[in-house]
């Protein structure tokens, strides 16, 4: 059997907001990664603005170069949404009303007790002979057409709709059409450690031929990614994953894509973010959490409650921004605030212990600090943050010195607090 | 005097790491924004991998379409850095050793007491007739060539080197070559209304020639953007801004880019997000806010505390996820919870009134709902959310029916709560 040639893929993004730089085109990178791992060679990304002639030209060119062209954007109801029109012109496929798409649009509005604006009817007009891609995550239906050498899929530009439509509609259709040899991807999710430190930890790592190592920062996490060729046996992958996982040590909180590998190390392989890992740890112990936040302003609570089912382990949070709230909601002694200031180890400890006791939770987690840009003092510069964890057997504390803008400091402080709990429970 | 035509710009990024999605191409967005504000019409971004034939094709095509082509990446010393070679092939400009570039490279290594690796000599070979762009921020020199209709600049892919080279080397050369008229951008930030509703509100709007209208969704906001040509007088811009602002009505919470215009309407032109607008309203009244959140899990508090100086008006927040916390932290009567359930108008009202009273705040804001995907009942589907605002003169309430994933419902509910306060204070 001869090795099949690797099919070529291109990615196209439409929209003035992309082409003028108002948004970074993160859709393209996401799609490129997916297509690469599916086994395509991604050869080009193109972004064009909301100009009909440019769209027609870009679609026509791509249809002559690639086997698969994946496009996002330009499916909305407004006048600058021109994708279907451009396909009609580029490939001589006049638009036709898709009755199913129209009924679906109307039903979506009815479900939310709203009348569909007249302009939205436009979204049900699809190029003749195209295949509708139903959108269960938003209003605009997508569609797919064959043109030139390419199979082309068109999806909304809103990232969450695009991602879901790609996974649920486009991937199955691609699988029917192409004989692909997918790469295997393993992601190591770490926190509390910069990218250059991760690189140092992996210095001298000997990777088998064809294995690609990459780093990606996704604040507040850093990811290490390994891409294994389809030909690599599971035992070979497991050896590399064990080696990398061991080197990352306690900074590693979960591994994604390694569920099916037989690893020697005792790694968490359930994936997800830091709060998801903490949720698993708490549920396994039938333990609960309550939070008391000052400088993070509620970010720890938001990270927890983002997860469905969090009511089983997250009891409550207090965002005690004022000193009065720290006293009333958490029982922090006024004398402590006067003696040490709100940004101090004793206050962080008292906050964690206070919320733990009042909420009747197994663990209490607190943050207090100076997120900036104002509020600094000579001995407490911007980025000074105290975090504390109250447990049944005593209270732990960490002092952090973070840098950057206000939101970065808040994000990193909230993550460090959750990570204090994760490491305590590990 | 005839209106000068707006010159066209394209952006090209080279590198396998971009085209396979290992890195998000943030260079392209940065360059696009700079070029747009300088007065170019950016019509296309292209990313290609490290394959000579693809690079030659992409450079050749771009040189025939645009007046300026700005490229980054592919200038390093390794075999997969092919930019200069591709330009040599594309435009018949054989590579020649640039002695100044070579001496500069050697001097850079000497400065760090290192011997220059032999492979780096390659970086001093530039296409014949090109203009060297000295790199004071890294090793690889850039260069510029004229080809086809375009002036093309080639810079390193490392973002900090690229940005400095663009500002210090490329911008001055562009200024010599083009007579640019920077555009003027006005952004209308709205909330509580979908993009298609905004489109309907603006139906039949007569825009002066050259004014471009665009829509952009930035959850939980929708933006309407107007781009005015440089030639447009301030009075003309003001008339359009007044018309658009008037049509958007109470959905509009601030306008950006209109500070210097003399508007007839009483619009807020200080810009920023919804919480920033609410902050201005509260500060003007010397009023304060406290929040009581269930389904939004702290997102209202995070929106508020994202802003430096929020301690002047944001007193505290309670994330009362459990019923026990609603009773203890907010004083919601247990009987009310039993009679109506936690997701109900009476409980939302009691939460807002409870936090207002306990925190001693002017306003109390609450959310309680079903963010999903679990927790729905036949009469309370996922997306059912009650929000309430307790004020010195009584309590307001809204029932929302939101759709989408858990995080989307949380984001929209938090925004709707803040917007209830914004409209009350308007």
Please tell me about this protein's structure.
The structure is a homodimer of 426-residue chains. By secondary structure, chain A is of the alpha/beta class. Chain A has 3 domains: 8-177, MoaB/Mog-like domain (Molybdenum Cofactor Biosythetic Enzyme, Chain A, 3-Layer(aba) Sandwich); 184-256, 2-Layer Sandwich (Alpha-Beta Plaits); 274-425, CinA-like (Maf protein, Alpha-Beta Complex). Chain A contains 14 helices and 17 strands. In chain A, the strands form 4 sheets. Chain A has a 6-stranded mixed beta sheet with strand order 2-1-3-8-7-6, sandwiched between helices. A 5-stranded mixed beta sheet of chain A has the order 14-13-15-16-17, sandwiched between helices. In chain A, strands 10-11-9-12 form a 4-stranded antiparallel beta sheet. In chain A, a hairpin with a 2-residue loop joins strand 16 (384-391) and strand 17 (394-401). In chain A, helix 2 runs parallel beside helix 6 and helix 9 (274-285) runs parallel beside helix 14. Chain A starts with 7 loop residues before the first strand and ends with a helix. The mean pLDDT of chain A is 93. At the A-B interface, helix 1, helix 2, strand 2, helix 10 and strand 14 of A face helix 1, helix 2, strand 2, helix 7 and strand 10 of B.
Identify the notable features of this structure and list them briefly.
homodimer; Alpha-Beta Plaits; 17 strands; Molybdenum Cofactor Biosythetic Enzyme, Chain A; 6-stranded mixed sheet; 426 residues; alpha/beta; Maf protein; 38% helix; 5-stranded mixed sheet; 3 domains
């Amino acid at each position: 059997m001869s090795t099949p040639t690797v099919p070529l893929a291109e990615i196209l993004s439409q929209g003035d907001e992309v082409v003028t730089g108002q948004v970074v085109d993160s859709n393209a990178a996401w799609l490129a990664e997916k297509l690469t791992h599916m086994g395509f060679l991604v050869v080009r990304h193109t972004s064009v603005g909301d100009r009909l002639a440019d769209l027609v030209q870009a679609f026509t060119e791509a249809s002559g170069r690639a086997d698969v062209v994946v496009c996002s954007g330009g499916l909305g109801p407004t006048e600058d949404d021109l994708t279907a029109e451009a396909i009609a012109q580029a490939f001589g496929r006049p638009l036709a009303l898709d009755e199913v798409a129209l009924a679906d649009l109307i039903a979506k509005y009815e479900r939310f007790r709203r009348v569909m604006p007249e302009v939205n009817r436009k979204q049900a007009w699809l190029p003749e002979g195209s295949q509708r891609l139903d959108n269960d995550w938003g209003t605009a239906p997508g569609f797919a057409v064959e043109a030139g050498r390419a199979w082309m899929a068109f999806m909304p530009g809103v990232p969450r709709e695009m991602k879901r439509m790609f996974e649920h509609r486009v991937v199955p259709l691609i699988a029917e059409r192409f004989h692909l040899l997918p790469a295997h991807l393993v992601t190591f999710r770490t926190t509390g450690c910069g990218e250059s430190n991760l690189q140092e930890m992996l210095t001298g790592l000997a990777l088998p031929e064809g294995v690609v190592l990459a780093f990606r920062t996704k604040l507040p996490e850093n990811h290490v990614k390994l891409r294994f060729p389809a030909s690599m046996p599971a035992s070979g992958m497991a050896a590399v994953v064990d080696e990398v996982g061991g080197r990352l040590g306690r900074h590693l909180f979960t591994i994604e894509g390694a569920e099916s590998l037989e690893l020697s190390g005792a790694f968490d392989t359930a994936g997800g973010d830091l709060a998801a890992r903490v949720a698993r740890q708490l549920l396994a112990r039938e333990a609960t959490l309550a939070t008391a936040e000052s400088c993070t302003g509620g970010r720890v609570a938001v990270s927890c409650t983002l997860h469905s089912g969090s009511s089983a382990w997250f009891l409550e949070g207090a965002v005690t921004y004022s000193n009065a709230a720290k006293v009333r909601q958490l029982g922090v002694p006024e004398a402590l605030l006067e003696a040490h200031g709100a940004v101090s180890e004793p206050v962080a400890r008292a906050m964690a212990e206070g919320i733990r006791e009042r909420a009747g939770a197994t663990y209490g987690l607190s943050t207090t600090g100076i997120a900036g840009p104002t509020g600094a003092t000579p001995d407490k510069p911007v980025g000074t943050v105290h975090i504390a964890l109250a447990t049944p057997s005593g209270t732990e504390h960490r002092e952090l010195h973070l840098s950057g803008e206000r939101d970065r400091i808040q994000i990193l402080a909230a993550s460090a607090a959750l990570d204090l709990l994760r490491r305590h429970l590990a």
